[in-house]
Amino acid sequence: MGQLIYSMVTSLDGYVTAAEGDIGLGAQDEEVHTFVGDLFRPVRTFLYGRRMYETMVYWETAHTEPDAPAFVVDYARDWQAADKIVWSTTLQEPSSARTRIERSFDPEAVRRLKARCDHDLTVDGPTLAAQAISAGLVDEYHLFVTTSVVGGGTRFFPDGVRLDLELVDHRTFPTGLVWTRYRAR
Predict the structure, then answer these.
(1) What are the transmembrane regions (predicted)?
(2) Domains of the chain with CATH codes
């Protein structure tokens, strides 16, 4: 059975997008990218909301950029090899291989998908993740916390949901970025 992981970069005050400006993404360097690539290499299925998919589809062609460093090429190849499921009512066609579009989120379908997988899955994007969290589908939470406090925006965790989590791992990077991994109790 696959584990469903929700992971995003978040500001120190818990926002994945800021009301104004960015959330301090400057902390993403080669060391962080390599760590993320190694961490999520076993993931073979990505569950996306439309906006997150439109951001991540960059990896479909990132390996073709002139002078792309090896860690970028490696991550792009891993991303391309994985299946992608995108929930969208507006997206007509996928922009990447191994991708299908679903029109409405069905928690039971995701539960069945997890049950038959022999690999982990991720749910990416705060809106889709909120639905998965509310349905009790998320097994692990990986937060990459920047050193910025942004004061508002879109939160990592949805309002109205109580979670009791167990810290199972963490790492700090020289840039000040902190990765924490929590498991649902």
Answers:
(1) none
(2) 4-176 (3.40.430.10)
- pTM for the model stands at 0.94
Which amino acid is located at 86 in the chain?
V
Structure token pair of residue 29? 């360097």
- Tokens describing residue 7: 């992971």
Mention every residue, 6+ apart, whose C-beta is less than 8 A from residue 69. Answer: 30
**DSSP 3-state of 51:** helix
**Alpha-carbon distances of 10 from 77, 146, 155, rounded to whole Å:** 25, 6, 8
Cα–Cα nearest to 128, from 55, 48, 51, 183: 48
User: For residue range 43-96, what is the model confidence (pLDDT) as tens digits?
Assistant: 999 999 999 999 999 999 999 999 999 999 999 999 999 999 999 999 999 999
How far apart, in Å, do the first and last CA atoms of the chain sit? Answer: 17
